[in-house]
Write a structure and sequence with these properties.
Layout lengths: L12 E3 L12 H16 L1 H6 L7 E5 L6 H12 L2 E6 H4 L4 H13 L2 E6 L29 H14 L5 E7 L17 E4 L5 H12 L10 H7 L5 H18 L9 H10 L6 H13 L8
Parallel strand pairs: 2-5, 2-6, 3-4, 4-5
Antiparallel strand pairs: 1-3
Helix pairs in contact: 1-3, 5-6, 7-8, 7-9, 9-10
Amino acid sequence: MATRFIEKGAYFKIKKPRWSWQRIGGLREAKDRLEEMVSLPLRNPEVFRKAGLTPPHGILLWGPPGGGKTVLAEAAARSAGCSYIAVKAIEIMSEPEEIRVMYETAAELAPTVIFVNEVDALAPKRDAESIWAVGITRDAPVRIAPPEITEIFYEEMDRASKRRDIITIGGTYRPDVLDPLSTKKGRMERKIYVPPPDLEDRKEIIRIHLKGKKLGPDISVDRLAEMTEYYVGADILGMIREATVIAIREGEGSFDHLTEEHFIKAMKRVPPSLSPQTVEKYNETLKQECEHCYLF
């Protein structure tokens, strides 16, 4: 039987971080916390050492899907001026040895930020019964890692915790199915909530993504923000893209400007990801969290 060859690094990506804080609308609190917990310590290690401060070795970003967790992690790495490794938990757990290779690579490239997307699949709470109804968000990870793979992940985080120049950031929108052992000291020991965008956040997101586009006289950013309640950042970006495609189609292949009608049509194609019930569920979870999890 032929041995399957897996190229080292095939399941994670070493990326040049392109997102900056300025390109991300809203999320001021999350950006401030990441700047303090990730960017400043990696950028100024000697200052923190002299001050007797040890930065978190890992951080959990949690909140609704499409809310900006991935771009926040990338922007934190860019602000730190460090290496950035991104991985999807559901992919790397197919080749557990790649987890070790990923952390070895992070050490070679240090200082490094590692972002593990949908980390709940790699570090699941195995005896959990979902407390969230199906249809509000996904009920559980499509696949979860077996215990021995989760243990490799924990071993590598523990090994990285002996250093000051590797920070693991996990992202999840199902904190209720995440193993508590993943957030113990030295692992993802600090938590940052990435909330749905409020009205002012949506205005800022819309302004950023409409920049450079020709707008009709009936377009009001305030009005669009009011229309997009329960939209997350990814929804708003999708709506703007669809509105532009509709304008091009109606212009028979040419593009003049966007009107409010284009956005109304686009919203039928891109409905909001959230609902009042979803938002309430996240708010309930936030209330149950210990405030100290959010401090440096």
